[in-house]
């Protein structure tokens, strides 16, 4: 299978993990195994890598590319089940965890997966290829819920107009394909606005994809499990691709690094709270050289936190 994907912020992510040769590391979104292969290059023969992915096509590629390495354990599951998986493997603490939260190039470029507004395909957008699809969202959700999704997950200022257009259109027939939906969205946006910025359907497609895969909720629910799974000195490194994800990660990391919560007027700390983590750096984005090689890295942001308590 041709599973092309350029790992963004490759060296920055590997450096952020501060890999120990005999450590245990988790790649929560292994995909084309780009970052994972980098981890394996830095691991010694006693090191271990747990490679997660929920996409069955990605799992087949992971098996081909790194499955023969005895240090690798492949997990076909969503990373939201990290805590239970590690417990079943008898692993108490790990030395590093990474997650690249972007949609892979393979998923975007494979038209039939239904992620792209550039190619005509059945509405799908399921990373796991299971459960509710984009077709279900646009054809069964009521107008208010569609508007909420577009507003909250896509930060789309024309969410109300787009939701109304979707509901009016589907009264005549179901919305079945990506280009069909893209046209409905485009027609709901004022012509003057369509002439500026990127594709008019970009924000709405992002929002629907997030809803289909429960991306933000799973991230929110799992960050504490990721941090808890780290041993002392362990690092968590996460790459986000839009502001909604980045806000969640930034806030969580800040909370791990927060110390005393006593009121400013309290002369001596009485809460006893000390930081559990520290930030090795604030954030990192793609270099000029990487942007020239891979334009999809332009929205990537890497954040990392180290466990110190």
Q: Can you tell me about this structure?
A:
This protein has 309 residues and is of the alpha/beta class. It has 2 domains: 10-100 and 215-307, Vaccinia Virus protein VP39 (Rossmann fold, 3-Layer(aba) Sandwich), CATH 3.40.50.150; 129-213, DNA polymerase, domain 1 (Orthogonal Bundle), CATH 1.10.150. 43% of the residues lie in helices and 14% in strands. The protein contains 14 helices and 8 strands. The protein has helices at residues 10-17, 34-42, 56-66, 82-88, 105-109, 134-140, 143-154, 159-170, 178-188, 191-194, 202-213, 215-229, 243-256, 288-293, and strands at 24-27, 48-53, 72-76, 94-100, 230-240, 277-278, 284-285, 301-307. Strands 1, 2, 3, 4, 5, 6, 7 and 8 form an 8-stranded mixed β-sheet that branches. Helix 7 packs antiparallel against helix 8 (159-170). It is globular. The protein starts with 9 loop residues before the first helix and ends with a strand. The mean pLDDT is 94.
List keywords for this structure.
309 residues, alpha/beta, Rossmann fold, DNA polymerase, domain 1, 2 domains, 14 helices
In short:
The protein has 309 residues and is α/β, with parallel strands linked by helices. The protein has helices at residues 10-17, 34-42, 56-66, 82-88, 105-109, 134-140, 143-154, 159-170, 178-188, 191-194, 202-213, 215-229, 243-256, 288-293; strands at 24-27, 48-53, 72-76, 94-100, 230-240, 277-278, 284-285, 301-307. The protein is globular and about 60 Å long.
